[in-house]
Amino acid sequence: MAFPTSVNDQITDSVTQSNVKVLGEAPAQAMGSLYQTIAQATSLAAQNAVAQQQGANNVAMAVATRCVNALVGSLPGRE
């Protein structure tokens, strides 16, 4: 204790230990929060990439279908 007070020494020590515990855990909690944020951002980027790929595949399929229809429609006897 730094100086004598009217509060019981055990209570003062308990509060001090609690404060030290909170201050000691803060960096670990901050890093845990950071890791969760990074993981969420990374997974969202992967999800967006998959959605983009699916959209591109749909466009490619539509173009291929349109081209096949144009080729088949130009065959003799197909009017």
From TrEMBL:
InterPro entries associated with the record: Killing_trait_RebB
User: In its UniProt entry, what is this protein called?
Assistant: RebB family R body protein
Task: Name the species this protein comes from.
Answer: Agrilutibacter solisilvae
